[in-house]
Design brief:
Elements (H helix, E strand, L loop, with lengths): L6 H5 L2 H31 L2 H4 L1 H19 L2
């Protein structure tokens, strides 16, 4: 039988690691910057108005998700 690459070698391909790494980095950015952005907007306006930011961003993601899926 021929030699098979180990699972570590198969998982270490950079082109396969990029999408999960991008999703993880984006998630951490939202986790860290989101509350600060909402707090900053709340200090400039009201808290209910500041909570529209995540709603608008989620709507943008939902509306543009088909583009990401088409590029796969």
């Amino acid at each position: 039988m021929g030699e098979r690459p180990s699972s570590v070698v198969r998982r270490s391909r950079p082109q396969e690691a990029a999408p999960p790494a991008t999703a993880t980095a984006t998630g951490y950015l939202g986790l860290l910057a989101g509350p600060a952005a909402i707090g900053g907007l709340a200090s400039l306006s009201t808290l209910p108005a500041a909570f529209t930011l995540p709603v608008v961003l989620a709507a943008c993601v939902a509306l543009t998700a088909h583009r990401a899926l088409e590029q796969r």
